[in-house]
From TrEMBL:
Annotated gene: fdxA
InterPro entries listed in its UniProt record: 4Fe4S_Fe-S-bd, 4Fe4S_Fe_S_CS, 7Fe_ferredoxin, FdxA_Actino, RnfB_subfamily
Protein name: Ferredoxin
Alphabetical list of PROSITE patterns matching this protein: 4FE4S_FER_1 (PS00198), 4FE4S_FER_2 (PS51379)
Function: Ferredoxins are iron-sulfur proteins that transfer electrons in a wide variety of metabolic reactions.
Native source species: Streptomyces caledonius
One Pfam family from the record: Fer4
Record text on cofactor binding: Binds 1 [3Fe-4S] cluster.
Domain of life: Bacteria
């Protein structure tokens, strides 16, 4: 079993979770962070510190976000278990499902034009 990071992390990346993880198994992608499921020891230390409540025990992931259980695992398909997110550093890509998400909180261009401009 593992903890997973879900949608609220996207484009937020607070990173408070990283400091709490004793296994250094929370990895940084472009738009969100991902937990390596084989390295996570289910200690739960990361879950309460996330300010946007993005972290869940995988059995408790809300229904709408359950695909993030797979998203976290599949992010490591080609990386395997790197052993340390600090050593590996940021990874300049995301899971395809995350990469395809619209930018959350983006202002539509038409609304970004000031009145009388
Ligand atoms: Fe993301 Fe929350 Fe960690 S926003 S980076 S899961 S503290
Ligand atoms: Fe790390 Fe424990 Fe979370 S091992 S990913 S802090 S559950």
């Amino acid at each position: 079993m593992t903890f997973v990071i879900a949608l609220p992390c996207v484009d937020v990346k607070d990173k408070a979770c990283i400091d709490e993880c004793p296994l250094d198994c929370i990895y940084e992608g472009e738009r969100m962070l991902y937990i390596q499921p084989d390295e996570c020891i289910d200690c739960g230390a990361c879950e309460p510190v996330c300010p946007v409540e993005a972290i869940f025990f995988e059995d408790d992931t809300p229904q709408d976000w359950q695909h993030f259980n797979t998203v976290n695992a599949e992010f490591f398909s080609d990386l395997g278990a790197p052993g340390s997110s600090t050593k590996l550093g940021p990874i300049e890509r995301d899971h395809p499902i995350v990469a395809a998400l619209p930018t959350l909180g983006a202002v539509p261009p038409v609304l970004a034009i000031p009145p009388n401009a």
